[in-house]
Amino acid sequence: QVQLVESGGGLVQPGGSLRLSCAASGFTLSYYGVGWFRQAPGKEREGIACISYSDGSITYADTVKGRFTISRDHTKNSMFLQMDSLKPEDSGVYYCAAGGFYCQSDSYNYWGQGTQVTDSS
Predict the structure, then answer these.
(1) What 3-state class would DSSP assign to 96?
(2) Is 111:2 a contact under the CB 8 Å cutoff?
(3) 119 close to 91: Cβ distance less than 8 angstroms
(4) What is the pLDDT of residues 62-121, one digit of tens each?
């Protein structure tokens, strides 16, 4: 069964850090383009960090560039999102996804259930 399971969300103060994890099962994550997306209340889902399957290039949304880092560990069949210097506007539900192109949300086939990141200020 193909599955993506996120973990690591929670409450965070402005300026703090969180590390999100996404464990894949039922398929090999390294064979696919992967990405992290988030959705804030009342807003559309936004692609924030993605790794291209074709050349491994990484794309970041301007809103997180310089603060967030996407990575993956082939040995753990997992991907990660290190989030530093967090801002209140970073709050939302974060989803990992696989099987798509760059940060084009509609192109992704596999999605996790989401993990909540909430500003505690």
Answers:
(1) strand
(2) no
(3) yes
(4) 999 999 999 999 999 999 999 999 999 999 999 999 999 889 999 999 999 999 999 887
Q: Which of 11, 16, 19, 9 is nearest to 82 (CA)?
A: 19
- pLDDT score at 54: 87
Which positions ≥6 away from 44 have C-beta within 8 Å?
none
Please, which residues have CB within 8 angstroms of residue 27's CB and are 6 or more apart in sequence? 2, 98, 110
| Residues 38 and 94: beta-carbon distance below 8 Å | yes
- Whose tokens are 């290039």? That residue is 57
Contact (CB, 8 A) for 94 and 82: no
Give the pLDDT score at 105.
93
Lowest mean pLDDT among 24-28, 34-38, 54-58, 96-100: 54-58
